[in-house]
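Help needed: design a sequence for this.
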């Protein structure tokens, strides 16, 4: 079975953390992205990653 991801692979490959520019990975339940470097988490709403720094969310 092929796993479904909420963001296209092309978009996912160019995304970076807005705080530290670190790599992003999907959260365990695939409803957000988590920075591997600074550990901030960003939600995905209607297939769109909301990459606002934590102090602006």
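Sure. Designed sequence:
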């Amino acid at each position: 079975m092929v796993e479904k991801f909420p963001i296209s692979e092309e978009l996912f490959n160019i995304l970076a953390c807005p705080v530290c520019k670190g790599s992003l990975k999907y959260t365990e339940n695939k409803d957000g992205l988590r920075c591997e470097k600074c550990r901030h988490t960003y939600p995905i709403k209607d297939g769109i990653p909301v990459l606002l720094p934590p102090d602006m969310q």
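The CA atoms of residues 9 and 15 lie 10 Å apart.
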